[in-house]
Amino acid sequence: MQEPQTPTPLHEVADPVLASAGITLLMKRDDLIHPSIPGNKWRKLKHNLGAARESGADTILTFGGAYSNHIYAAASAGKLFGFKAIGVIRGEEHLPLNDVLRHAVGCGMELDYLDRDTYRRKYDADVLTYLRDRHGAFYLLPEGGTNCHAVRGCAEIIDEIDVPFDYICCPMGTGGTLTGLIAGLAGRAHALGFSSLKGATFLEGDVRSLLSNCGVVDQGNWTVMLGYHFGGFAKRKPELLEFIEKFGVTHGIGLDFVYTGKMMYGLFDLTRKGFFQRGSRIIVVHTGGVDASRTD
Predict the structure, then answer these.
(1) pLDDT above 60: residue 219
(2) 50 Cβ contact list (under 8 Å, min separation 6)
(3) What topology is assigned to 10-35+150-285 in CATH?
(4) Nearest-angstrom CA–CA distance, 167 and 190
(5) Whole-prediction pTM value?
(6) Can you tell me the distance from the alpha carbon of 238 to that of 132, in angstroms, rounded to the nearest whole number?
(7) Pairing between strand 24-28 and 10-12?
(8) Architecture of the 39-145 domain
(9) Do domains 10-35+150-285 and 39-145 have the same CATH topology?
(10) Which one, 107, 118, 161, 282, has the greatest CB density within 10 A?
(11) Where are the domains of the chain?
């Protein structure tokens, strides 16, 4: 299995909608980092795996749903870097395994399951003690991989960009990627996070907490965009799917309907509405996705 490849290239997206608004758009192709550990999944895992190694751990344990891209990526990374991996899955076991969990098992990941009520308390001391009694010592990797190690990894995206820009955009689930971009910017330019969740007003507080916990000064140069969720997490509408298909045909770049498609739809819609000042240069981070039909 090949090693993850960074830095990733910038790809200019030329489109009449952008041209008419005087906007230059560059896509950071983090989807090209690795076929099984793409985009922000690798960015979040990179320093966590380093911390696990430094702690002397030979096992990583993490959490996710049955269709979790994070579980898929963590299993792939465990195999590539020589860690035993344990995936704690939300809900009951269903056989036969879906493609995500079949891949995880194929990489050597051991699967465990928690009922949904217990899963909601997965970080409580009694649940972690139960998991350690079952599996022995492990390095705990949070659901989605989001912690200060992840923020550090995502901040490195900014270091790889060698052109001036006014905005940088990313999709949002837990807020880890946006927090990393804010950290990397250090007050330069403005970061926009496009939420894939409906009614996710809590994300702003989550980002502020993560910034504070990771020792990053909040300079206020960021915004969470809440209006492009298309009904909620993993929900889709015909206009979104039509946009994704057209974008792929026009630009030769695939988008998923959970994260990157919603971000790009939102960016084009904001451009039409005059949100961005004429002459702005915008970076969008293509955070990848193992498959357009699933994510976490």
Answers:
(1) yes
(2) 149
(3) Rossmann fold (3.40.50)
(4) 5
(5) 0.91
(6) 45
(7) antiparallel
(8) 3-Layer(aba) Sandwich (3.40)
(9) yes
(10) 282
(11) 10-35+150-285, 39-145
